[in-house]
Design brief:
The complex is a heterodimer of chains A (507) and B (631).
Chain A: H1 3-24, H2 30-50, E1 76-83, E2 88-94, H3 99-118, H4 126-145, H5 149-158, H6 160-170, H7 175-204, H8 209-212, H9 220-237, H10 246-253, H11 256-281, H12 283-309, H13 314-334, H14 338-369, H15 380-383, H16 385-398, H17 406-420, H18 422-450, H19 457-460, H20 467-486, H21 489-506
Antiparallel strand pairs in A: 1-2
Chain B: H1 3-24, H2 30-55, E1 60-69, E2 72-80, H3 82-105, H4 112-131, H5 135-153, H6 162-191, H7 196-201, H8 206-223, H9 232-235, H10 241-249, H11 253-262, H12 264-268, H13 271-293, H14 298-318, H15 322-350, H16 361-364, H17 366-380, H18 386-404, H19 411-440, H20 455-470, H21 480-483, H22 511-530, H23 544-548, H24 553-602, H25 606-630
Antiparallel strand pairs in B: 1-2
The chains are: A mainly alpha (507), B mainly alpha (631).
C-alpha cells in the first residue's frame, strides 16, 4: 500500500473511529469526549492536507499521472473488492476536482467540533453532537472520494440520518418538523439517485466511475434517462430551484454547527455529483438537459435573491442566499465547458467558506440577542462593533465583491454562459449578472437592519462575552476568504488538469 | 521586473497594507490610526512622484498569469504611463489632504481606526484602478472602491439618513456595474484574455465592440455619476465632509472617466458608443448645473457641481479628446477637494450645512473665504485659475468637432457638447456666485460664533489652493500635454484630433466662455445686490422646485425601480412559500391523509377482520387453482 492509499483509508477511518470512541464515552466525560472528537477531526484535517503532498512534483502544479483511462486521473487510488458476489468494489480516489472539497470538509468539521467543544448547544450532550458531526464527515468525504457508483450512493446516504438527528435534537423551535422535512425530501432524491445508479450499472455492466466517465457503453436513451434521475437527485441536494424548499427550514432550525455543515459542505455533494456523475457518466444527457438546467439555475439566482429581499429572519435569509449562490454554481456546470465547471468548483469552495462564516456569525448573534427577527435586531455596531464588522465582511464577501472568494465563481459562471453565445445563454448570463446586483441589494438591506441605526432592546443588552474563542474559530475562514479571493489559483490550479481531462473525455 | 513596475505595484500595495493594519487596530486607537493613514497616503504620494520621474514620459508594463478559467487568462499586472502616474499623484495628494484634515474634523469620533483604514483602502482601490493592466484587476479596484464608499458614507452614526444614502450609493453604482462586468466579459472572452494590452490589440468586429463599449458605459455612468445613474451622488453627502472630498475629487467619480481613457482606443472605433457618451455627458452637465442652482445645503451645491463637471469630462471624451478630459479631471480634483474641505471648515464653524444659516463669513473666516474664492473661481472658470484652462480645453475641442466635424463621433455630438458646455459655463458661474454670496457676504444669519479652523483643517485647504490656482500653468510646460495622451493609440486614426494638439487654446473663441461667465456671475450678483437677505435662487421662480428636486428623477427612480422590485420580492416570497413549498407540503399532507385512510380501512372489528382474512385466503386459493389449471 502506498502512502497515498494509507491516507485515503485514514481520512475515512479517523473520523469513523473518532465517532465510535466519542459516542462510547459515558456521560460524565462529556467535555473530554468533545475534546477527543476535536482531536480526531484535527487529525483528519492533517491527513487531508498531507494527501496533497507526494503528488507529482508537489507544490501547486501537478503533473498528469501516467496515461490511464481518460477522464479521471486520480492522484491516489484504492481499489478493493468489497462484496464479490455482487461485484461491488471499494474504489476510492482523489483528484483535483475532489481535493479542494475534501479539505473544505475536514476544515469545517474541525471548526464545528472546536465550536461544540467550547459550547454545546441546548440540550447539551455535546459529545454525541461531535460524534454525529464525525459520522457526517465520513459520509461527505466518502462521497467525494468514491469512484464506484454504488459506493458513492452508500456514502451519499450515510449523511442523512446523523444530520436528521443533529437538527431534530439540537435544533430550534420547529426542529422536528424541519428535520423530518429534510430527511424525507432528500430521501426522495436518494431514491431517484438509486434508480439512476441501477439504470447505469445494469446498462453498462460496471459501476466503476473511472471506466464510465465519458459515457462509454451507454446508449443515448440510457444517458438521457439516467441524467434526468441524477439531475433530480442532485437538484434536491444542491438545492436547485424549485426543489429547494427543505433548505430554508433545515438551515434555519439546525444548530449553528449543523447549519455550517449543511451549507458549507453538504450542499456540495449535490453539485459535485452533478459534475462527477451527471456530466461525467452521462454527458449526452447533460448536454441535452443543459438549457433546462441553466434556466432553472438562473431562476434560482433571481428567485432566491428576491425572496431574500423580502425575508425577515436572519438565518432564513442566509439559507435562501444559498439557493442563489448554488444557482451560480449550477449555471457554471450547465454550460458543460471548462470555464463553467472551473467557475462552479471555485464557487463551491467560496460558498462553503463564506456561508459557513455567515452561519457562524448568525449563530453568535442569535445566541446573544435571543432572536433572529430582523425587525428586532438593529444597531449591532453600537454594542458589538467587531461582530458587526465581521458580519459586514462576510456579507460583502457573499455579495461577490471582487477581491474576495465569492467573486470568481459568479463572474466566470456569467462569462461561461455568455461565451456559449446564442440568445438563450446570453439571456441567462445577463439575468445572472442582474442577480448579482440583487444579491448586493439584500445583503446591504440585511446590514442596514442589523448593524446600523440605534440599538434595539435585543441588541442593547448583548454582551460580546466568550467572543475571543469564536473569533479564533472564524479566523481561518476569514483568512481563506481573503486568500482565495486574492489568489484564486490556490483553489483552482489543482482542478485545472482534471477538468480539462473531463471535458476532453466527454467531447 | 523593472523599477517602474515595482513602483506601480507599490502604489496600491502600500495603502492596502496600511488599511489591513488599520482594520486590525482597536477602534479607539486614534493616534496610531491617524499616523498610519497619513503615512500611507504620504508614501503613496512619494511612490507616485518617483514613478512619474522613472517613467520619464514612456510607458511600462509588467504582468503575470493570475488565474486561468478554461483558456481565459486573467493576469495580475500593471500598465503604467505618465497619465497613470499623474492621476496617481492627484489621488495621493487628495488622500493625504483628507487624512490630515480628518484628524481635525472627526476629533471626537470613537471609531477613528476603521475610518482611517477605510480611507486607506479606498485610496488603495483607486490606485489599483489607476495602475491595473488587466480588466478584472481593474474591476477589483472598481468594486472595492464602491464598498469603501458605502462604509464611509454610513460612518456618521448620528445621521439617520446616512445608512440609506450609503446603500443607495452602492446599489446604484452596482446596477451600472452589471453592465461593466458584462462588458468586460464580452471583451475578455472575445479576445481570449482580460489583459488590457491584449484586449486593445484584438481586432473586434464592430457590433461586438459597440455592445461591449455601451455595456462599459453603464458602469462608467454609475461610478462617475452620469445621467441616469447620478442619483446616488447628492445623497452621498450624508458621509463626513472629508469623505465627500475624497469621493468627488480624486476617487470614485474620477474612476469612470479614467477607465474610458484607459480603453479609449476601443471607444474611438465605436462612434455609437461615443455618441451615447456625448448625449449622456451633455444631459448630465446641464442637469447637474441646473440642480446646483436651487440647493440650500452647501454640500449639495458642490455635489451637483461635481455631477456637472464630470459631464464636461464625458463630453470631452465623446468629441475625441481624452487629453482634455484628463486635464479637467486633474484640475477638478484639486479645486473640488479644496471646495469640499473649505465647506467642511464652514460647516465645522457654523454647525450647519444650510446656507440660510450662514452669511457674512468673509470677515469671520478670511482664510476659508479666500480659499473658497479660489475654488469657486476655478470651478466657474475664471482666468487664470486651473479650471479656466481645463474647461476651455474641452470647449475648444468641442467647438472644433462641431464646426470642422473632426472627432470620432461627428459634428452633431460636437454641437451638443459645445452648446451645452457653453450654457453650463453661465449656469456654473451663476451658482458659484450664489454660493459665495450666500455663505460669505452680507450679514451672519446663524447662531454660532464662526471663526477660521484650527491648523489641521486649515493647512490641507491652503495646500490645495495652490494647484487650484496655478495648475493651468503646467499645461504650458512642454511634456505635460503629451503625458495625457492615451498610449494605446499607436496608429493615429484619421478622425481623431491630431496627437500634437495643444492643451491650451488661445484664440478668439476664448471670448465666449468669458462672456458667459460674466453674464452668469453678473446675474447672480445683480439679484443679490437688490436684496442681500434673499436667496438669489428666488429668481428661478416656478422652476425652483424642479431644480431643487433635480427634476424629480429620484422619485422617478423610486417609482420605476425600487417599488416594483420590492413588490416583486414580496410576491416571490409569497409564491415560494405558498406555491413551491405549498406543493411539497401538499404532497406530504396528501401522503399522510392517504396513509390515514388506508389505516382506517384496516382498522376493523374482529368478526370483519376474520371475514376479510378468510375471503382473502379464498381468493388467493382460487387464483392458485385457476393459474394451476391454466398452466
Amino acid at each position: 500500500m502506498s502512502a497515498g492509499q494509507v491516507g485515503l483509508v485514514a481520512i475515512l477511518a479517523l473520523p469513523a473511529v473518532g465517532a465510535a470512541v466519542t459516542a462510547a464515552l459515558p456521560e460524565r466525560f462529556d467535555r473530554a469526549g468533545r475534546a477527543v472528537a476535536t482531536g480526531f477531526a484535527a487529525a483528519t484535517l492533517v491527513v487531508s492536507v498531507l494527501l496533497f503532498f507526494g503528488v507529482g512534483g508537489g507544490g501547486f502544479v501537478h503533473q498528469v499521472p501516467e496515461q490511464g483511462p481518460p477522464g479521471i486521473h486520480p492522484w491516489h487510488e484504492l481499489d478493493l473488492t468489497w462484496v464479490p458476489g455482487l461485484d461491488l468494489r471499494f474504489h476510492l480516489g482523489l483528484d483535483g476536482i475532489s481535493y479542494p472539497l475534501v479539505v473544505l470538509t475536514t476544515l469545517l468539521t474541525l471548526l464545528c467540533c472546536v465550536y461544540t467543544w467550547w459550547r454545546a448547544p441546548a440540550p447539551g450532550r455535546g459529545r454525541t453532537l461531535t460524534a454525529l458531526l464525525l459520522v457526517i464527515e465520513v459520509g461527505i468525504l466518502g462521497t467525494f472520494l468514491a469512484l464506484d457508483l454504488v459506493l458513492f450512493f452508500v456514502f451519499f446516504e450515510v449523511v442523512l440520518l446523523p444530520m436528521y438527528a443533529v437538527i431534530a435534537i439540537w435544533g430550534g423551535d420547529r426542529r422536528v418538523y424541519a428535520a423530518r422535512k429534510f430527511a424525507l425530501y432528500t430521501l426522495f432524491g436518494s431514491v431517484l439517485l438509486l434508480v439512476g445508479v441501477f439504470v447505469v450499472v445494469s446498462a453498462a455492466g460496471t459501476a466503476d466511475i473511472v471506466a464510465l466517465t465519458g459515457g462509454k457503453g451507454l446508449s443515448r436513451t440510457t444517458q438521457l434517462v439516467a441524467f434526468t434521475l441524477f439531475a433530480l437527485a442532485f437538484a434536491v441536494k444542491s438545492p436547485l430551484w424549485p426543489l429547494h424548499s427543505w433548505l430554508p427550514d433545515a438551515h434555519s432550525q439546525a444548530p449553528t454547527v449543523g447549519s455550517v455543515i449543511l451549507a458549507g459542505v453538504l450542499l456540495k455533494m449535490g453539485t459535485y455529483g452533478l459534475i462527477r456523475i451527471g456530466v461525467g457518466v452521462t454527458p449526452e444527457g447533460a448536454r441535452w438537459a443543459a438549457p433546462v438546467l441553466g434556466a432553472l439555475a438562473v431562476a434560482a439566482i433571481i428567485v432566491g435573491a428576491l425572496v431574500c429581499l423580502a425575508q425577515t429572519e436572519l438565518k432564513r435569509l442566509i439559507a435562501y442566499s444559498s439557493v442563489g449562490h448554488m444557482g451560480f454554481v449550477v449555471l457554471g456546470i450547465a454550460t458543460v465547458t471548462t470555464t463553467g465547471i472551473q467557475a462552479a468548483l471555485i464557487g463551491n469552495i467560496a460558498h462553503g467558506l463564506i456561508t459557513g462564516l455567515l452561519f457562524f456569525i448568525a449563530g453568535a448573534i442569535k445566541d446573544r440577542a435571543h432572536t433572529g427577527e430582523l425587525a428586532e435586531l438593529g444597531g449591532l455596531r453600537e454594542t458589538a462593533p467587531r461582530l458587526a464588522g465581521l458580519l459586514g465582511f462576510a456579507a460583502i464577501a457573499s455579495l461577490g465583491l471582487p477581491g474576495l472568494a465569492g467573486f470568481w465563481g459568479e463572474a466566470f459562471g456569467v462569462v461561461a454562459a455568455l461565451r456559449l453565445g446564442g440568445p438563450l445563454w446570453t439571456t441567462l448570463g445577463v439575468l445572472a449578472a442582474f442577480g448579482g446586483a440583487l444579491t448586493a441589494a439584500y445583503f446591504l438591506r440585511l446590514l442596514r437592519r442589523i448593524s446600523h441605526g440605534p440599538a434595539t432592546p435585543a441588541v442593547a443588552n448583548l454582551s460580546p462575552r466568550g467572543y475571543a474563542v469564536e473569533q479564533a474559530i472564524w479566523a481561518p475562514l476569514v483568512v481563506l476568504i481573503l486568500a482565495v479571493g486574492l489568489l484564486p489559483p490556490i483553489a483552482l490550479d489543482v482542478a485545472d488538469e482534471p477538468v480539462k481531462a473531463l471535458i476532453e473525455a466527454i467531447s | 521586473m523593472t523599477a517602474a513596475v515595482v513602483l506601480g505595484w507599490l502604489l496600491p500595495a502600500v495603502p492596502f497594507g496600511v488599511a489591513l493594519a488599520g482594520l486590525l487596530l482597536p477602534q479607539r486607537s486614534r493616534a496610531v490610526a491617524a499616523g498610519l493613514g497619513i503615512a500611507g497616503a504620504a508614501a503613496s504620494l512619494v511612490v507616485a512622484v518617483i514613478l512619474l520621474a522613472t517613467l520619464d514620459g514612456a510607458a511600462a508594463e509588467g504582468s503575470a498569469l493570475w488565474v486561468e478559467f478554461g483558456g481565459l487568462e486573467v493576469t495580475a499586472g500593471v500598465r503604467l504611463d505618465p497619465t497613470a502616474a499623474l492621476v496617481a499623484i492627484a489621488v495621493a495628494v487628495v488622500a493625504l489632504a483628507v487624512q490630515v484634515y480628518s484628524v481635525g474634523y472627526l476629533d471626537h469620533d470613537d471609531r477613528y481606526a476603521p475610518y482611517a483604514a477605510q480611507i486607506s483602502l479606498f485610496t488603495a482601490a483607486m490606485l489599483l484602478v489607476v495602475v491595473a493592466g488587466d480588466l478584472l484587476l481593474l474591476l477589483v479596484g472598481w468594486e472595492v472602491m464602491g464598498i469603501c464608499s458605502y462604509l464611509l458614507i454610513a460612518h456618521d452614526r448620528r445621521l439617520p439618513e446616512a445608512p440609506a444614502a450609503a446603500v443607495k450609493a452602492f446599489l446604484v453604482t452596482r446596477v451600472g456595474d452589471v453592465g461593466f462586468l458584462l462588458g468586460i466579459a464580452v471583451l475578455g472572452f472575445t479576445a481570449g484574455s482580460f489583459r488590457i494590452s491584449e484586449v486593445l490589440a484584438h481586432d473586434f468586429d464592430a457590433t461586438t465592440l459597440t455592445v461591449a463599449c455601451l455595456l462599459l458605459l453603464a458602469g462608467v455612468a454609475g461610478k462617475s455619476a452620469q445621467f441616469p445613474l447620478h442619483t446616488w451622488l447628492p445623497d452621498a453627502m450624508a458621509g463626513p465632509t472629508p469623505i465627500s472630498a475624497l469621493i468627488h475629487a480624486a476617487t470614485m467619480v474620477a474612476a469612470g472617466i479614467y477607465a474610458v481613457t484607459r480603453l479609449y482606443p476601443l471607444f474611438v472605433k465605436s462612434p455609437a458608443a461615443l455618441t451615447v457618451l456625448g448625449v449622456m455627458g451633455a444631459v448630465t452637465l446641464l442637469l447637474g448645473a441646473l440642480a446646483a442652482t436651487a440647493q440650500d445645503d452647501i454640500k449639495r451645491v458642490l455635489a451637483w457641481s461635481t455631477v456637472s463637471q464630470i459631464g464636461y469630462m464625458a463630453g470631452a471624451l465623446a468629441v475625441g479628446s481624452p487629453a482634455a478630459a484628463l486635464f479637467h479631471l486633474l484640475s477638478h480634483a484639486a479645486f473640488k477637494a479644496l471646495l469640499f474641505l473649505a465647506a467642511g471648515c464652514v460647516i465645522h464653524a457654523t454647525g450647519t450645512n444650510s446656507m440660510s444659516a450662514m452669511g457674512g463669513l468673509r470677515r469671520r473666516m478670511p482664510v476659508t473665504f479666500w480659499c473658497t474664492v479660489i475654488g469657486l473661481g476655478a470651478l466657474a472658470g475664471v482666468p487664470p485659475l486651473a479650471g479656466f484652462w481645463s474647461k476651455d480645453g474641452i470647449l475648444a475641442v468641442a467647438e472644433r468637432a462641431a464646426l470642422d466635424g473632426v472627432g470620432p463621433a461627428g459634428a452633431p455630438v460636437g454641437w451638443l457638447v459645445w452648446i451645452s458646455g457653453l450654457v453650463g459655463v453661465a449656469v456654473t458661474a451663476w451658482y458659484a456666485t450664489r454660493l459665495l454670496l450666500r455663505a460669505f457676504a452680507g450679514s451672519y444669519r446663524g447662531e454660532a460664533a464662526p471663526h477660521d479652523p484650527p491648523a489641521l483643517l486649515r493647512w490641507p485647504v491652503l495646500v490645495l489652493a495652490v494647484p487650484s490656482a496655478l495648475f493651468g500653468a503646467v499645461a504650458f510646460a512642454g511634456p505635460f500635454a503629451g503625458w495625457l495622451r492615451p498610449p494605446g493609440i499607436t496608429e493615429h486614426p484619421p478622425n481623431l484630433l491630431p496627437l500634437d494638439e495643444e492643451l491650451i487654446h488661445f484664440g478668439p473663441q476664448l471670448v465666449y466662455p468669458v462672456a458667459l461667465l460674466l453674464l452668469g456671475a453678473g446675474l447672480a450678483w445683480w439679484r443679490w445686490r437688490r436684496d442681500p437677505a434673499t436667496d438669489p435662487a428666488t429668481a428661478l421662480g416656478p422652476l425652483r422646485p424642479a431644480f431643487d428636486r433635480a427634476f424629480w428623477l429620484d422619485e422617478l427612480q423610486h417609482t420605476l425601480v425600487v417599488r416594483p422590485v420590492a413588490a416583486l420580492a414580496r410576491l416571490a416570497r409569497r409564491g415560494d412559500e405558498v406555491l413551491v413549498d405549498g406543493a411539497v407540503e401538499g404532497v406530504g399532507r396528501g401522503s399522510g391523509a392517504l396513509g390515514d385512510s388506508l389505516g382506517t380501512l384496516h382498522r376493523a372489528g374482529l368478526p370483519r377482520a376474520a371475514t376479510a382474512v378468510l375471503a382473502g385466503t379464498l381468493l388467493i386459493g382460487l387464483a392458485a387453482v385457476l393459474i394451476g389449471v391454466g398452466g
